[in-house]
Amino acid sequence: MSRTASLERITGETAIKVSWTLDGSGQSQIATGIGFFDHMLILLAKHGLFDLTVEAKGDLFVDGHHTVEDTGIVMGQALAGALGDKAGIKRYGTAFVPMDEALAMVSLDISGRPYLVFDAALPGEQVGQFDSELTEEFLRALSIHAGLTLHVRLLSGKNTHHMIEAIFKALGRALAEATRRDERIKGVMSTKGML
């Protein structure tokens, strides 16, 4: 059974289409109109071995906020849809990823209880046309709509590009671990019997 979900969301500010296949090979087609954000989503797919398609059209004449946040919303919904009843998944994932001088840690639980801890002071306000503070906004939207408890911590770094890149690579790897099936797990990984 393919663990795939495709969703579309249209508002007065954005039009977002996402297709997410969990058991993929790291292939992606990303077009958000924000080059650096595209780069980060490509990295997430590659390092998570997900097949991911994202097409976002937003009010970039205002700024990138609506596009990035709404992409996080739809990606979170697609991730939740692809996971289905979450039976057999490992549930938890943690990854430490270095990117030159930067070191990021992402630890997550596909818990159904959305929560974001973002401990990352990013020194630069922008990377290309991407506002650095939108990193946290994307992660919050993703965690809420996918039902993730998500901890993100930068352990070192000076270059904002490297720091954000390490976060997205670590997110991909942590999600890959948490969404992986384990044949020993019967039902869901919870004594409550549900996630």
TrEMBL record:
SUPFAM superfamilies: Ribosomal protein S5 domain 2-like. The keyword NADP does not apply. It is an enzyme of class 4 (lyase). InterPro entries: IGPD_sf, ImidazoleglycerolP_deHydtase, ImidazoleglycerP_deHydtase_CS, Ribosomal_Su5_D2-typ_SF. Pathway: Amino-acid biosynthesis; L-histidine biosynthesis; L-histidine from 5-phospho-alpha-D-ribose 1-diphosphate: step 6/9. Its main location: cytoplasm. Its EC number is 4.2.1.19. It catalyses: D-erythro-1-(imidazol-4-yl)glycerol 3-phosphate = 3-(imidazol-4-yl)-2-oxopropyl phosphate + H2O. It is found in: Cytoplasm. Coiled coil: none annotated. It comes from the Bacteria. Belongs to the imidazoleglycerol-phosphate dehydratase family. This is Imidazoleglycerol-phosphate dehydratase. It comes from Sporomusa acidovorans (strain ATCC 49682 / DSM 3132 / Mol).
